[in-house]
Input
Amino acid sequence: MRKVALTVSLIGLWLAGCSTTPPRVAPPPAITKTATVKAVQGPFQPDANLYLCPSSTVTNAFEADPNNRILNFNPIVLVDGKVVLTPVPMNNACMTSGFGKRSGRVHKGLDVKARPGSQIYSAAPGIIREADYSTGFGNYIVIDHGQGIFTRYAHMSGFSPGIHQGMSIGFGQPLGLIGQSGNATGIHLHFEVLTGNYNTPKRSFGLTARDPLSFPPYAGAG
Ligand SMILES: [Zn+2]
Output
């Protein structure tokens, strides 16, 4: 009898070990309070940590510990003292490329990889300004978070039902799935944080790209 109980508890331990999900953080209320639009918050909770992808091809990588965990990573950041957002709007994603010079050009975003079919979420509340296709970005979305701060999500396989230009969207709402549309060498999300004046003929293409991992942590996050 005791032997059976021991076996059962060992199986329980094994199951517990297999079902652990990475630690996540609850988005702070301020992520909605700082928004200029009222929209329902979605189910997404950002991962507490970001890891470099386990390959030798990570470019513009941030400093990481021996387990590839990026040091001083902040899952909830404050952009220019104005807008609270998450710099990695997906779960279980790893970094393949960072912001900065790459192959003689400036890589204007953060690239993360996740399993095909993985969901991409809105990084902060806002209004969808562009839900479109371009040869470079493929299927992409641009969200206006107010106060001159925007995010772009590129290379998506497609958009979630109901997603369209002009709609309000809350933090953590599904936008669509990760993909390889446009000019992409593999399945990944190219994520940009953009600032500036949107009301020019170039629209999002006239904005200034900022390093998504460069912003300070939001002090009220936890
Ligand atoms: Zn990219």
Observations:
- The pocket of zinc ion is lined by residues 97, 107, 109, 111, 190 (CB under 6 Å).
- Residues 2-18 form the longest helix (17 residues).
- The CA atoms of residues 86 and 118 lie 17 Å apart.
